[in-house]
Design brief:
10 helices, 13 strands, Aspartate Aminotransferase, domain 2, four-stranded antiparallel β-sheet, 14% strand, 384 residues, 36% helix, seven-stranded mixed β-sheet, alpha/beta, Aspartate Aminotransferase, domain 1
Amino acid sequence: MEPRFSARLTDLQASPIRQILAAANRPDMISFAGGLPAGESFPSFALKVPTAILQYGPTEGDDALRECLCEDLARLGLAVSTDQIIILSGSQQGIDLVAKLFIDAGTRVALESPTYLAALQVFRFFGARLAPFTPADAGNGDLFRERPAFAYVIPTFHNPTGYCYSDAERKALARVCDREAIPVFEDDPYRDLAYDPCDRRPLCAYLRESPWIYQGSFSKTLAPGLRLGFLAASPALVPHLVRLKQAADLHSNRLSQWLVLNALKRPDREVRLAALVEAYRRKRDAFDGALHEHFSGFARWEKPQGGLFFWLHLDVPIDTRLLLDSALADGVAFMPGEPFYADHTRHATGVLRLAFSHASEAEANKGLKILSERVRRFVDGARL
């Protein structure tokens, strides 16, 4: 007899990016699929671990790390106390906690479309009704005609598009959310990876009335294997989020917290970050050059001001999911654009997300040449 599963299991879909990354683990694969940091960017750690770090710790996270984050957030314009910060077991946990806090079956959630795949996965799992908008809608006074439970936004180096909101767009969206008393959940994992001057002040810093949650990550600037992130929130939301985290994992990995704290306290922290940004800037520029060489004439894109992704629009709106198997067979992995849209029944979009962070410059040029040849053949077939 089959076991009886919960009803919500029917809304749990496999993550397309995790499936593609599994296929991309071949040693000969050139991967543009996941936003994987470059392996050479990872810091080295001297492991002389205090015994106390190996004991159970507070759900909210270790005090010293939260105090350090308070100082960092104050420099961004978010004045918070240590009590408003919770250390997460990866920023994905923050998305899960916020979903548990707000979403019942049928709850309306406003979000950009396209948006982060894993957030879509979690919100759908809890039964949310998704209400998509774009940054261009931010100043629209009728943006939220039917009031959502919260708005999920990635204003700085958006995933997947790489778009960065202007200061005016951040203020406009904050005004609408304040006026309508709509809580804001701001996801900000890429803000330190800025290659050109641009506005990066958190949208939450412009809120005056609405509750808010601001989330960051250590995966892109330190190492994703640490599985550590953090959130800061309005005081009224923190007790609920703490109890939800207690029910999930008691507390985040204390060894990872200790390693992150040591990295944040190093005197060469800013020097290391500047070197990381410069290395990614070179990769971005080389990737942009390779795109011009191999995709000019049948695709368009914007060179991102930061983050890890190019969002490539083909001139013919083919279903890029249909390209994937043949590209993988040719040794190139990429992320089709269709799964990033809130309307997952949406038809062909003709967009691809390409991560430039992981492959070397030579690999990127080779991989984009192979991918462009595969796309051209597919587009020519679609035009027949």
